[in-house]
Amino acid sequence: MSFFHTKIENLRGVGSQRATLLQKELNIFTYGDLIQRYPFRYLDRTQFYSIVDLHEELPYVQVKGILRNREVVGEGPKQRMVAKVSDGSAELELVWFKGVKWLQSIIKNHQEYIVFGKPTIFNGKPQMAHPELEEVTEAKPGQSFLQPVYNTTEKLKNYHRIDSKAIARLVFDLLKTALPHVQESLSPALIQHYGLMSKAEAYQQIHFPQTPELLQAARFRLKFEELFYVQLKLLRQRDQRKITLAGQFFREVPTLIHFYKNVLPFDLTGAQKRVIHDIYKDFCTGQQMNRLLQGDVGSGKTIVAFISMLMAADNGAQSCLMAPTEILADQHYVGLKAYADLLGLKLGKLTGSTRTADRRVLHEQLRSGEMHMLVGTHALLEDVVQFRNLGLTIMDEQHRFGVAQRSKLWQKNPNVIPHVLVMTATPIPRTLAMTLYGDLDVSVIDELPAGRKPIVTVHRYDANRLKVFQFVRDQVTLGRQVYIVYPLIEESETMDYKDLTDGYESVARAFPEFQISIVHGRMKAEQKDFEMQRFVNRETQIMVATTVIEVGVNVPNASVMIIESAERFGLSQLHQLRGRVGRGAEQSYCILMTGYKLSKDSRTRLETMVRTNNGFEIADIDLKLRGPGDLMGTQQSGVLDLLIADLAKDGRILTESRAAAQQLINADPGLANPENLNIRRHIASLPATAVNWSRIS
After folding, report:
1. Strands 481-485 and 542-545: what pairing?
2. Which percentage of the chain shows pLDDT scores above 70?
3. What is the structure's pLDDT at 634?
4. Element (H, E) at 302
5. What is the CATH number of domain 456-612?
6. With a threshold of 0.90, does the pTM exceed it?
């Protein structure tokens, strides 16, 4: 067993009770877990403020002075400890509401202290609540001016005195014995090429940096290594799959050529042609295709999917397209059936509401091979759905399907795994795509079809509502349709945002001459479909809805999207909602309505929406604002288990580390060369279940 597998209770100052708490609260079980529990920020303890200069705008600061007038004030739950500190320029009041008994035993009157905390002004005088105190004589761990601050929990801090400083002391003690046991896990060539600090030195400097420059070098080393191993793992998985998993050859494309020349009523964009070329190349390799297709709403992914299905049909294979909702499946089916009929190909549809009698016929046609293509929802996954020769599976908005569901689809062909095309209209920032989908080949459709005009987006305050309503009236009079989206279904006591029910009533009052649809998530599926269908058929002119329309209906005639309380929505959600309009040839508009009170992040989101229609630029800003965990609807650590790297900020390091991993695989796929011994040994020491290969093993 390695040194870093040693249980944490063996460390001086821990013991069994503290060990249980560290395990429960911070997931620290071993020496390895503790040494890789990195500080989240550092305090520069070189700078002192005079008390007379303190004001509320300052961040956490430190002052030095004599503590006096220490006393306990109040009774019971309102009891608090109050003290005054003077540095000769003025007096600062200190107050603690918790741990009063403990503080009484350690705080001394007439002692000189360094006080660290966030200054506020209370009754016109400077005050600090719950500051850190340090006797001027006390030595600091590591004697570093940049002091580490570690994440801890309220339970650890308030009841067990395991605050950031206590963790710093444990790390300081551990480093004294741990550093000789740290094995280098990168090759000498990589260390030299990227000018990396040694791993042992990086651990020392990340916890107790001697200078800001050494801290930066330690961070770069540890981030590079972490991302390098993430990419190495993904690229090896991709290459391994290409070696082990065969795919059907789809080389013959006579129907496709006829489709281009005689059936397709418009020209494909350059981006669409490029993606189709990528897919055709995959089909000719004899290896299973695993490709992610990214493209903004309305960029023409569905026609690319259909062309891929044609290639399969031309080579005697069947294909299926799975969508997350019935509405989306219907939309794909209606859009593609006209083409399939003209080409003499059989295209079927299978959803939860397909009648039993129709299902029997459909199942028979799939088994016999009479049906070439199938569009549907989760219903495609049922065991009874069997194909004669499934060669291609396409998933639309795949993040809505679990891994188990996807693999179930691939098992529909026992002889050879089908090719896989995954489509998404949610623009994924490049850094996230390289990491979450790093084992897939990625294609991007980054231009809109000819004739599409960019959507004009404006931000309007509630005070301008009458003008906005007049604009709606003008648009409907021109024959267009309008969406109005609200963030909530019913009025909430905690939030005074416009709710859907109120909204519907005020819209109905404002436009008595128009027909209005209402759609929200609590309606039954058939009610929702009925209302959506009325809007599609132009029986209603205005659709009042919650975000359920985010993915779904394609209504080329809808030209205005009004988003109420727009500050309540995330950036990618705003972009998805905006994509519901702008699908026809007419100029479309998106109007973001808000009150005057907006946070800094809300302003950034609204300004971004007004400034650009580029989904990838929007996704990058969204990643910076929200972080990768939120963005994928799953915690970053859950998917990637990252310890120090941040996909929102470390794009450059990620690109470099992926290039380094790719270079290594190209030069030495089996990691057999002597110079790669460190990397080979490190991977071999990891458990098979390891998610993050850079963790100490």
Report:
1. parallel
2. 92
3. 39
4. helix 301-314
5. 3.40.50.300
6. no
pLDDT in tens, 61-94: 889 999 998 999 988 888 899 999 999 999 999 9
- What percent of the chain has a predicted confidence (pLDDT) above 90? 48
Predicted confidence at residue 456, as pLDDT, reads 96
Q: Are 426 and 576 in contact (CB under 8 A)?
A: yes
Domain boundaries, the chain: 3-35, 41-176, 188-244+646-684, 254-285+300-424, 456-612
**Topology annotation, domain 254-285+300-424:** Rossmann fold (3.40.50)
Closest CA to 280 of 246, 245, 304: 304
pLDDT at res. 143: 54
Q: The tokens of 646 are what?
A: 């941040």
The half-sphere exposure of 241 on its side-chain side, counting CA atoms within 13 A, is 19
CATH level 3 topology of 41-176: OB fold (Dihydrolipoamide Acetyltransferase, E2P) (2.40.50)
In total, the chain counts a number of residues equal to: 697
Query: Is-same-fold flag (41-176; 254-285+300-424)?
Result: no
- How far apart CA 489 and CA 243 sit, in angstroms, is 51
CA distance 189 to 193: 6
Q: Which residues are CB-neighbours of 366 under 8 A, at least 6 positions away?
A: 318, 348, 374, 385, 386, 387, 388
- Characterise 317 by phi-psi region: left (phi > 0), alpha (psi -120 to 50), beta (else): beta
Listed as ranges, residues in the chain with pLDDT below 50 are 141-142, 493, 496-497, 631-638
- Residue of 311, 259, 257 lying closest to 282 (CA atoms): 311
